[in-house]
Each structure stands twice: as C-alpha cells, then as structure tokens.
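Please annotate this fold before class:
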Amino acid sequence: MNGDQAMRAHSATLPTPRFSDPAFVIPPPLATATVAIVTSAALHTPQHPAFVGGDTGFRLIDRDRRDLILGHWSPNFDRAAIAMDLNVVYPIDRLEELAARGVIGAVAPRHVSFAGNQPDDVATIRLDTGPAAAAVLRADGVDVVLLTPV
C-alpha cells in the first residue's frame, strides 16, 4: 500500500462529527463584503513559530504575501503548484483583483492559517482555536471567508 492509499484508509476510519444546530448567517452582498482567507496550508512567516505535529493553533497572516513559508509537512502533499504560485493555497492576488473590480467590497487586513493535517484532534480546532480565529476575523470586520483546504 502506498502512502496515499494508507492515508485514505486511515481517514476512512475517523469519525465524522455531527452538528445538531450548525450556525448560519446571511452575509452582506459580496460587493460590500470584506473577505478573508482561511487556509490549512500551515502558512507562517519567519517571525511566527513554525507549525509542528499536532499543532491546533493558528497564525494570523497580514495581507502582504512576502516571506510566507509553507509549513504543511504531509508526505502525500505535492508542493509543485505552490512553488509556482502561492495563490494556489493563499489566493490573495485573486482577492485583490476582485476588490479592484468591485466584485467584493474589500480584502481583509489579516487572514488565518491552520495546519490541515490534523487526524487526531479536530475537536480542539472546532471548539477552541477555530472560534478564536473567527473572533479575530469578526473584530477585523470580516463578513465572508474563502476556505482553501490543503
């Protein structure tokens, strides 16, 4: 069994959470909405601590895309596309273009990065660090998030 098959087999055994009353809000029209990126590519800057195995925390990323480090460490992850264009996991240039064209109201001043390879502790993200990251984005006036799962 190769690495990809092993990961798929392992993932198939993990329980799927059920939410009895999921939150839902109606966002403002996109033309007036402030949009942020939430990625699971474990992006961080040299000033942030690197993500380590089991790290359920998040890193805030300023709008500027310089000096971002891809911290995703799965052996099943192909980094080639990201090496050519960071927008694959952090589409900040595309959001800036949408804002310039008036499709979205504004690009958020900060974005959020998690480490996506969390097979054992999704509950901490769902109950603790996820809501904490959402609170930061709400305080920044974010109306909509663009999820870029890795």
Remarks:
- Residues 28-148 form one domain.
- The chain has one domain: 28-148.
- The helical segments are 3-12, 80-84, 92-100, 122-139.
- DSSP finds four helices and seven strands in the chain.
